[in-house]
Write a structure and sequence with these properties.
Chain lengths: 112, 349
């Protein structure tokens, strides 16, 4: 597996086709409350987006865990490849001057 | 605990304001030095994520374990589902429905985790239906009286929690995350079971006898839920050693069983229930309760299919699946029709 055409973040390799066509896989993201981002909580199967939302409500927010839900077809997610992780993220590794701790400043300066 | 997961409004709004951020960034630093090698990640107690390279045996072990766990959750809906129509009050009925729905939810979290390893849920269900994969033996025992719903919540869910809490730190990320959700919900299950028994034990002599009878029948099967002995001589040749090395399992079956007994004895005393084990007594030297031997012949017999309800559980499960086929097909047909309409609208525009 490599590059942009790989399956989504949490989904593994596709399995062989069976006689009964199974419902597509959806990844579910829930906003816990106002002011927080949507966070990935898991996945589920549903025939279409509308039922995916309803199933997500029943499965992932039975105890008021959310105020908003996103569902995204797993096939529509493009993920970076773990195999290319090093070359992909390396450019950020040598720029330590982007971190505040890089700078030498006198210790007795306040609010810095 | 019910409502455990509601977020406290006084909590910091942004992840960067919390300790979690520091913890995560510290982890990242570690990740750099650890690298992506499976053994190195395991040695550093890091999580393995779905698309990481992993040994085939690790993947197979996880698929087997997570699938068996998922199957147990959905088969586990049946013994208590049996009592929904006959729950003694509206309150008990509403609680029981919520609990059985939770079990379905736990099954789905777990199938979702298993699918990240490259299997299809439908395929796992096929394996359950034709007996190639197992579920926990405990669900092959019948629920004869209402008190059994109490005993299941208190003993069976109690044992499940003891088994599952360490799995929240399992080395495989999606499994660990699913277990965190499951454990949060299980504690309501155990408390409602205790409450059923607590109510019965303060009722009529007949109700007390019913609660005692349920505990008599569920105590030993609950102890068997931790699996056969796997310490000392018994450790040789079992799965435990490898699963521990891989961080899938954190404690031996025997350790968890002992912890469970130590936890349950005071609760039984509080309830006024006598646990059906003449060898049960406090051992001051060990600092634990001594207890009798589980009937492992019975355990293997039930696991191999010879329990009171094995055939009934699978037959019911298959029937439910087959009866739902037209719903799955109709939903597919509707989705296809809607997609086609959408397409036509787009090409017309």
């Amino acid at each position: 597996m490599s590059g942009a055409a790989t399956p989504p973040t949490e989904a593994g390799a596709p399995s062989p086709a069976r006689t009964e066509r199974s419902w597509p896989l959806w990844e579910v993201f829930v906003r816990g409350k106002r002011g927080l981002s949507h966070v990935h909580v898991g996945s589920l199967h549903a025939p279409d987006a509308e039922l995916a939302l309803r199933n997500a409500r029943d499965l992932y927010t039975r105890r008021q865990e959310g105020v908003s839900i996103w569902v995204v077809k797993a096939d529509d997610i493009t993920a970076s490849s773990p195999a290319e992780k090093d070359s992909f993220f390396d450019p950020a590794a040598d720029k330590i001057y982007r971190h505040p701790t890089f700078y030498d400043v006198p210790e007795d300066v306040e609010y810095l | 605990m019910y409502g455990n997961d509601v977020i406290d409004p006084t909590q910091p709004l942004n992840a960067a304001e919390t300790d979690a951020y520091d913890a995560a960034s510290a982890h990242e630093d570690q990740r750099d030095t650890v690298g992506d090698d499976f053994d190195a990640l395991i040695a550093a107690d890091q999580r393995i994520e779905p698309r990481d390279a992993m040994p085939e045996k690790y993947r197979e072990t996880l698929i087997r374990q997570i699938a068996q766990h998922a199957h147990s959750e959905i088969i586990g809906m049946q013994p208590e589902g049996n009592w929904i129509t006959r729950a003694p009050s509206l309150r008990r009925k509403a609680i029981l429905i919520a609990k059985v729905q939770d079990e379905a939810g736990h099954g789905l979290y777990l199938y979702s985790a298993a699918e990240t390893l490259g299997v299809d849920r439908a395929e796992l269900l096929d394996r359950l239906h034709d007996g190639r994969q197992k579920y926990s033996s405990i669900f092959n025992y019948p629920t004869l009286t209402w008190a059994d719903c109490g005993a299941i919540g208190w003993l069976v869910d109690g044992a499940a929690i003891m088994n599952q809490v360490p799995l929240c730190r399992c080395s495989y990320g999606p499994y660990a995350r699913a277990m965190i959700r499951v454990c949060k919900e299980e504690s309501f299950h155990q408390r409602q079971g205790f409450e059923i028994l607590w109510t019965l034990m303060r009722g009529t002599p007949e109700q007390q006898a019913m609660a005692q009878d349920a505990a008599d029948r569920w105590w030993w099967p609950a102890l068997a839920m931790f699996g056969p002995p796997d310490t000392g001589e018994a450790a040789k040749g079992g799965h435990t050693e490898q699963s521990m090395a891989w961080g899938i399992k954190r404690f031996s079956n025997d350790d968890l069983r002992q912890k469970f007994v130590d936890m349950m004895v005071p609760q039984a005393e509080k309830l006024g229930i006598v646990l059906p084990d003449p060898e049960l007594r406090w051992n001051d030297e060990r600092g634990h309760y001594d207890f009798g031997e589980v009937d492992w012949d019975e355990f293997w017999r039930v696991l191999r299919g010879d329990g009171a309800c094995n055939a009934e559980r699978i037959a019911h499960r298959r029937r439910a699946h087959e009866d739902g086929a037209w719903v799955r097909e109709a939903a597919n047909a509707y989705a296809a029709k809607q997609a086609l309409k959408e397409q036509q609208k787009e090409s017309a525009a």
